[in-house]
Specification:
Distance between the termini: 29 Å
Radius of gyration: 21 Å
Number of helices: 16
CATH class of the largest domain: Alpha Beta
Shape: globular
Low-confidence stretches: none
Oligomer: single chain
């Protein structure tokens, strides 16, 4: 069974092709600068050197057509013809109140995703565009949607309800939704496997740190609380997003700056976070370098980010009455030892102690435990694999065996732990 995953963004299309008999990714790539000048595609076949090809992607349909031609190319391809692909699965950021699981796409699904676009205006429209182009291009195979919000649909009402007029929830669906769900699903299931237990038997705190940052409390295998909210703006400090702030601040500053809601939204989403504090940097490597060279605002940015995450860990341990392990994942979570160390410092009273030597060795080292022998709570670094979640869901739906909790409990336990 061959499954193609597509993640269509506003100026990029990320893809991968999976052989589900072997559960292997045989090909992956990304078309970048779509609709912009200087567009190109990176195409990597397993076991071969990555190819970078300059292409003119004035529209997304050109990018998707090029990707399909590469998959079947005599020199660079991995299939004889795209008709060999059994299904296409699409990432959709926001499923709102409509979707708590992955689904086969039909007209009713498209309409529901369109309705959710008001909740994710930067993400759902390009996701939809990719769906429509791919379905028009590959009409004879099934298409599925996997939602970032689905894993987080199990949040209890006391966790997702805001203390605002309740009719806002009833009329406008204003509640906590959460994001990065497929990443948190994958690494929480791997956590259970690393502990040698079933997901329903463990409490896990998963810390996803990339440009976007989120943290999830996973209680007995199900999402129990999450840092992001109605939009991805709530929660931890991020690359350019402010995270948790006093809600009066935007109201006061709109008056001070004589600006409108649209401009304030741009400031909070694109000019805040680490960029707002440092005034220069988003990439943590740049921030760390500047901090090492004495830049005080870069030092402050690191301290603020790590302190906020440390507070979330403490809060989620209280919410779940303890945790069995903490998982660090995504680009920064996987590759920045200093962040992991600073986030875990002064948590010994909660049974959390990092091993500095193990932590330093864990750069690009795959799955690895980094907790000390005295730590009651295990600490792991687990590279996320959202595309595997996409492909697994599509395969399970195709074979009429879909149950997201039992499916991943079985599959990820089966993979086991290879330190």
């Amino acid at each position: 069974m061959k499954i193609l995953t597509i993640n269509c963004g506003s100026s990029s299309v990320k893809y991968s092709l999976w052989d589900m008999r072997l559960r292997e990714r045989v090909c992956e790539g990304i078309a970048e600068r779509v609709t912009l000048d200087g567009s190109f595609v990176k195409h990597k076949v397993k076991g071969k050197t990555e190819e970078v090809l300059k292409k003119d992607f004035r529209k997304h349909d050109a990018a998707i057509t090029t990707i399909l031609s590469l998959l079947a190319d005599k020199k660079l391809g991995v299939v004889g013809d795209v008709s060999e692909i059994d299904a296409v699965v699409h990432r959709v950021v926001h499923g709102g109140k409509f979707f708590s699981r992955s689904v086969k796409i039909d007209e009713s699904v498209i309409k529901a995703v369109e309705q959710c676009s008001k909740l994710a205006p930067l993400h759902n429209p390009p996701n939809l565009l990719g769906i429509k182009i791919a379905m028009d291009t590959m009409r004879n195979i099934p298409h599925f949607a996997v939602f970032d919000t689905a894993f987080l649909s199990t949040l209890p009402s006391h966790a997702y309800t805001y203390a605002i007029p309740y009719e806002w929830y009833e009329k406008f669906d204003v509640r906590k939704y959460g994001f990065h769900g497929t990443s948190h699903l994958y690494v929480s299931r791997r956590a259970a496997a690393l502990l040698g237990r079933r997901p329903s038997e463990v409490n896990v705190i998963t810390v996803h740190i990339g440009n976007g940052v989120s943290i999830t409390a996973v209680k007995n295998g199900a999402a129990y609380d999450h840092s992001m909210g109605f939009t991805p703006l709530e929660g931890a400090v991020m690359g350019t997003r402010c995270g948790d702030i006093d809600p009066a601040i935007p109201l006061v500053m709109m008056k001070q700056l004589n600006t409108n809601a649209d401009e304030m939204e741009k400031i909070l989403n694109k000019k805040s976070g680490l960029l707002g504090i440092t005034g220069k940097y988003v990439d943590r490597r740049d921030i760390q370098k500047a901090a090492d060279e004495g830049d005080e605002r870069s030092k402050l940015a690191i301290d603020v980010e790590c302190y906020r995450l440390r507070k979330y860990i403490g809060a989620y341990m209280a919410a779940m009455n303890g945790t069995d392990c903490i998982i660090f994942t995504a680009g920064v979570g996987e590759n920045q030892p200093l962040h992991r160390e600073k986030i875990c410092e002064n948590l010994e009273s909660l049974g959390i102690a990092i091993d500095r030597e193990k932590n330093m060795r864990a750069v690009r080292a795959g799955e690895r435990e980094i907790s000390s022998s005295e730590s009651r709570v295990k600490i792991f670094v687990v590279p996320t694999n959202e595309e595997l979640v996409f492909a697994e869901d599509a395969a399970a739906l195709l074979e009429n065996r879909y149950d997201i909790h039992t499916q991943f409990e079985y599959e990820f336990q089966k993979i086991g732990y290879k330190p």
